[in-house]
Amino acid sequence: MKHRPPHILLINPWIHDFAAYDVWAKPIGLLSIAAILRQHECSVSYIDCLDRFHPKSLKKSDSSARHGRGPYLKTPISKPAGLESILRTYSRYGIPPEWFLEDLKALPQPDMILVTSMMTYWYPGVFEAIRMVRTVYPEVPIVLGGIYATLCHDHAVKYSGADVVVAGPGEKKILELVKQMTGACQALTFDPMDLDACPYPAFDLQHTIDYIPLVTSRGCPFSCDYCASGVLAPVRMVRNPEKVVEEIVFWQDNYGVQNFAFYDDALLVNPDQHAIPMFEAIIRTGRTFYFHTPNAVHIRGVSPRMASLMVRAGMKTLRLGLETSDFEGREMDRKVGERDFLQAVSHLLAAGFKKEQVGAYLLAGLPGQSMASVARSIETVKRSGITPVPTYFTPIPHTRMWEAAVAASPYDLAADPVFTNNEIMPCRSEGFDWKERTRLKAMVKSK
Fold it and tell me: In the chain, which segments carry CATH 3.40.50.280?
C-alpha cells in the first residue's frame, strides 16, 4: 500500500516593528525549501503573513506605480518590554491574525510546519505565529529556520516554542528533517552546493507575483566589520550567468513579471566572469525588464562598460555600498576610497542614470559615530550628483563590530535581540533621538 506524501506547511511570519515596507522582500530561503520539497514528492502549503495581496485585502497590484514595492497592512500593538519609552507607534505588519487563523484551519492538517525568520529583532512576530499555530495544530512538529534562528540560535531554542531550531542554509538538512518527523524517506536528487542545480524558489505559491527577488550568487569575498554575510553564507557560490537569464525569462513568460531585484551580497564582484556576461545575455533577449538592487553593489565594480550594460539591461534602482564618506578614518572596511566612489558616480551619470535612480547607502548610528559625521557624508553624496540613503546600524551577533556595539549601547543587546532594532539607533550612548533622525531626513530631501 502506497503511503500518501507528507504535507508540509511553510509560514512566513509577521514583522513587529516601528516601521516596515516591502522593498522587494520575499523569503527566498523558505520558498527554495518549498521547491525542494515539491521536487521530492512532498505536498506543500504556504501562508505568508506579510501578503500584501491576500484575497481578503482590498489592495490591488501597484507594480506599475512602485515597481512592485508597497506598504504592508499594519495594526498598532504594544511595544516590547524595554522599549516603552520610544515615542513611536509599534505595529504588527501583515495580515490580521484572524485571517491567519482562518487560513490555517482551511488547510489539511500538516505533518510538519516550517517557519522562517528574518531580522533578528523581528522575532516577536515569529513567536506570535508559532503560538497561534499551536492553538490549531498542537501536536504537529514545528521547525524554525532563517536569519534570526541562525544568528540568535540559543535565544531561539530557549524562547521560540519551536520543536527544532535550524541554523544555516536548510537545503542539505530539509529531507533529513522530513524523514525524522514524518518517516518519509527521500534522497536529495541534486547537489545543494551547485546553485544552478537547485529548483527555482516556489514563488508561484504566492497569491500575486508582483516581482521576483533573484540570488545570482551566495556569500561575499569581503569581511566588513558590521556584516554577517560570512556567517549566513560561509561558502562563496556563483550561478552560471546564462542560467540566471533563463530564470528571468521563465518568470516573465509564465507569470508576466517585469520587476526583478538582485539580492546578492556581491553582485559586481569578478564582473568579467559574472555580471557582464549576465547583463549582456539579458540585453540579447530584447525584452523589457526592470531591475533593482536593494542590496548595495560594490563600487569598484562600476566601470564605464558596466554602467552602460546596466542601463541597457533595464536597471531602474541602483544602490552603492558607500557606508561613510569619512574615507581617511574608515576602519570598518576598506573596500573603496574617495576616488573610487566619485569615478563610479561619474560612470553611472554618463551612462544615463538619473540622480533619483542611484543612491549611496550611508550607515548611521555606529558605535562612537557622531551625527555631524553622518551629515558630512550626506553632503558629500549630494555634491557627487546622486542621492544619499541613510541606513541605521543594526548590531549583529558574530560580527567583528558586535562587542563594540554591546559596549556602546544603553540597552542590553546580548540579553534580548529586540534591542538591536535599528529604528531606535541602539548604539547611541545617549539613546534614541527622533529629532536627529528627522533632521537627517530633511538634509537628504533639501536641494
Answer: 7-182
> Can you give the pTM of this predicted structure?
0.95
Give 211-445's CATH code, choosing from 3.30.479.30, 3.40.50.720, 3.40.50.970, 3.20.20.70: 3.20.20.70
CA 361 to chain centroid: 15
Which CATH architecture best describes the domain 7-182? Answer: 3-Layer(aba) Sandwich (3.40)
Using one digit for the tens of pLDDT, what is the confidence trace for 56-104?
987 665 555 589 999 999 999 999 999 999 989 999 999 999 999 999 9
